[in-house]
Amino acid sequence: MSTEQLFDSRVARHPARFSDALLPILIEALRGATKVLDPFAGTGRIHEIALALGIESVGIELEPEWAACHPRTQVGNALDLPFADGFFDAICTSPTYGNRMADHHEAHDDSRRNTYRHALGRPLSSDNLGAMQWGEKYRDFHRQAWAEAVRVLARGGRFVCNISDHIRDFQQVPVSEWHHETLEELGLVLVADHHVPTPRNRFGENAEARVEYEHVYILMCGP
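Above: the chain sequence. Below: its structure as tokens.
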């Protein structure tokens, strides 16, 4: 394997990378920024976006296997970012959706599972939100993570958040609305909400009741 391949975010399996359909919107949303952080970097597709814009990027990822996919991603915890206040002029990230990708039992049958635990091939680390279903624990974690992300975002900076609702018991769970409202409570101002049709899981008990698009929220940190 070449050095270039080692730093290719496609080498390691991950169940929820930024999809190709999102890239043009994320690139446009970050145009004019100079330094962007993804505090939930996964395999590091944020660096592909930054490369297209010619800007600096930093990724923080809890799991060493995924962090190792790119040299500008470092192992760390989104709840305790190692940066000074206002260090970045852009945040671009996608938290987990609190859906069945968070199932973390070790299955031994032949049924298909697209979960963080199965993609990584081992139990997830403590504080990995990939094991958190929608609920109070999930919301408490993100209140802390978003406060920390806003801390390192400069005044006048932008916060780009890709998130989606999901279907549970054939009902749509309003995950996206909760996230943008929580970010607004932290002082950010919502300036755009893009609805992006993307490929979704085509299996599981709610397969016929899919949410057909994801959100890309663009929020600004006041001057």
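The CA atoms of residues 116 and 130 lie 6 Å apart.
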